[in-house]
């Protein structure tokens, strides 16, 4: 049985993080696990057996924890699974490639829903439903701490906004909490230790680049290929990648993915443009080939230094989200920057 205990808070403050330290968790292995999550207290008397994960980042964490046999359904896919998870996730049931319907999720009879984006399931509204709607069916909803830490969310703010920058500490908190909920705390500890080691190695390699003077923008996608673009703001995962490598993101915004016009970007004339690659095709600019074609043929963008000098770097779009792949994104982008010959 799972209990949901609401915490009375006002306005958007219920989404503010209590800090980056892991919250106190009840003992696992027979006893209840208690999680503070987005202004609510979730109590699990036993590990869930039928988990629906909405968001590929969350799905990949569950797979990395060895919980493939507990996943009753998945949704919101961006790319193929990485090689190390391909076998474990080969037969995962997919409710939807993109956003699923409420009835479709409930129809899988889950005993927990784990969601990557609070815009999908939130306190007052969501593309799939609300906390209360799932609570009516006795289904607890766990939301990624990276989303709980946002100061604002909604379509009008480009996937939300942050008053404090995202860091890998929020990612490791999610890993630890999902591991405890799933009754596999040792697997969580091992995954965190391995991820921290990879992060430290990538940071050491990036430090040698001396890339402080290199400016960059990250283009995820666009609602229109020749219109405003969803570019990474200054407080999300791409900014964290930039900080580790030493790059300067020219988009200074608290929004996660603000819509920015190319006239504004041309004025900043970044040294490098990072293009998100993905298998998803629900926005016109999801296709990286179309991104390139626009940049190279548009009268304005074709004259930008990054385009004119061939400094268009492709990066897994999933690595631009606050996921385990963001750690790999550091190493891959650093390698690409080095190959361009812009560093010492």
TrEMBL record:
Every Fe/B12 periplasmic-binding domain range: 50-344
Name one matching Pfam family.
Answer: Peripla_BP_2
This protein's record includes keyword Signal: yes
* Record keywords: Signal
Signal peptide residues on this chain, from the entry's feature table: 1-26
Protein's name in the database: Iron complex transport system substrate-binding protein
What are the top taxonomic ranks of the organism? Bacteria, Pseudomonadati, Pseudomonadota, Alphaproteobacteria, Rhodobacterales
């Amino acid at each position: 049985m799972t209990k949901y205990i609401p915490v009375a808070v006002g306005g958007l403050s219920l989404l503010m993080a209590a800090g980056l330290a892991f919250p106190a968790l009840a003992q696992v292995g027979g006893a209840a696990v208690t999680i503070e999550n987005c202004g609510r207290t979730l109590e699990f008397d036993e590990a869930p057996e039928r988990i629906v994960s909405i968001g590929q980042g969350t799905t990949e964490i569950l797979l990395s924890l060895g919980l493939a046999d507990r996943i009753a359904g998945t949704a919101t896919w961006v790319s193929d699974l990485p090689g190390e998870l391909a076998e474990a996730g080969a037969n995962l049931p997919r409710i939807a490639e993109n956003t699923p319907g409420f009835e479709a999720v409930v129809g899988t009879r889950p005993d927990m829903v784990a969601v990557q984006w609070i815009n999908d399931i939130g306190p007052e509204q969501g593309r799939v439903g609300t906390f209360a709607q799932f609570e009516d069916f006795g289904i607890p909803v766990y939301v990624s701490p990276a989303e709980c830490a946002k100061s604002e969310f909604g379509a009008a703010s480009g996937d939300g906004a942050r008053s404090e920058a995202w860091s890998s500490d929020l990612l490791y908190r999610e890993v630890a909490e999902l591991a405890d909920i799933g009754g596999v705390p040792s697997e969580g500890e091992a995954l965190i230790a391995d991820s921290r080691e990879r992060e430290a190695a990538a940071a050491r390699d990036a430090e040698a680049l001396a890339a402080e003077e290199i400016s960059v923008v990250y283009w995820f996608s666009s609602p229109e290929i020749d219109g405003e673009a969803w570019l990474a703001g200054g407080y999300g995962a791409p900014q964290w990648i930039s900080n580790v490598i030493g790059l300067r993101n020219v988009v200074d915004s608290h929004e996660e993915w603000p819509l920015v016009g190319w006239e504004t970007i041309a004025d900043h004339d970044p040294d490098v443009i990072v293009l998100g690659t993905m298998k998803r095709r629900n926005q016109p600019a999801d296709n990286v080939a179309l991104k390139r074609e626009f940049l190279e043929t548009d009268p304005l963008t074709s004259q930008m230094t990054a385009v004119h000098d061939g400094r268009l770097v492709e990066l897994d779009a999933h690595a631009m989200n606050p996921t385990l792949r963001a750690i790999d994104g550091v190493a891959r982008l650093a390698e690409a920057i080095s190959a361009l010959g812009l560093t010492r």
